[in-house]
């Protein structure tokens, strides 16, 4: 999947991006964006491929403007720019909820770094989402 072409089209490509695009509107509901992230497939980039049962994932971690670490997450494989793919060429699909379940307490995340369809969430925001959004049946 690492041979996905870069896209210069900023049109939303999926439900998550549709909600991200609406997030800037005055009547936007941030809960819809969070739920869309948690319940949809997202993509991380890894230096390692998951081609063996004991393979580990070394995801692409960037620094935000404050120099704090943030996990790079993409709403669609084509949103990963080539310079990100050079650093971590393996595109791995997962769900947003799995990201929040596995991310450490000292790291934030950034959805679509450098794209207009994106956002950043720090460790405190992640903790709030974990607290406030429970899986169905919990």
TrEMBL record:
InterPro entries cross-referenced by the UniProt entry: SseB_N
Ranges for domain SseB protein N-terminal: 16-127
Domain of life of the organism encoding this protein: Bacteria
Protein name per the record: SseB protein N-terminal domain-containing protein
Organism of derivation: Arthrobacter cupressi
């Amino acid at each position: 999947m690492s041979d996905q072409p870069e896209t210069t089209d900023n049109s939303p490509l999926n439900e998550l991006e549709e909600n991200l695009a609406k997030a800037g509107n005055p009547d936007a509901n941030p809960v819809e964006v969070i739920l869309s992230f948690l319940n949809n497939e997202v993509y991380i980039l890894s230096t390692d491929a998951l081609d063996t049962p004991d393979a580990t994932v070394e995801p692409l971690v960037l620094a935000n403007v404050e120099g704090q670490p943030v996990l790079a997450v993409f709403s669609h494989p084509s949103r990963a720019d080539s310079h990100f793919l050079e650093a971590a060429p393996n595109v791995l699909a997962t769900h947003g909820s799995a990201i929040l379940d596995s991310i450490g307490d000292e790291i934030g995340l950034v959805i679509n770094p450098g794209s207009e369809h994106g956002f950043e969430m720090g460790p405190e925001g992640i903790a709030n989402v974990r607290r406030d959004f429970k899986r169905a049946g919990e």
